[in-house]
Amino acid sequence: MRLGRWCGWLTGATLLTVGSAVWAQTPAFTGEIAPGFDQCMTERGETTMGEVDCYSQAYDYWDAELNRQYKAAQNYCDSLNVTGSDVDKAVAQECRASLKEMQLRWIRYRDAMQTSNFFLVPDRDNQRGNIEHLRTMVYVVMTQAQLLTPPPQKQQQQQ
Hints:
Oligomer: single chain
Low-confidence stretches: 3-28
Number of strands: 0
Mean pLDDT: 80
Structural class: mainly alpha
């Protein structure tokens, strides 16, 4: 086996393992895209505009959740400064800087998906394509919100 193929296989296996570990930590997907989505689709999903409204509400829900999770992740970074020592301060600052850089890169990814996905969805020249595009963008934002969920903070031990 050539070294390049071996490295490619190893990288793919590593990404699959890391991706599986990350998804194992994300909230369980219940089948409903966002709270109230199924009811919205039952009540208004029979029309194109109703379906667009339901997906728009789901997008708004996940966008707000993304902002909430980003703030929670910032707070988690701040919590790493336990003792106030220079080391803890540096860890907390690095965590925040890394989080900010990651989110700025994700925003560029989201914007690129917004543009390129429009051209990739089937039936892009009609309303069905617009709905598929919006649905894809809901999943893009939902996934980022779930991945940003910080681990639970440990309770400080009493001494």
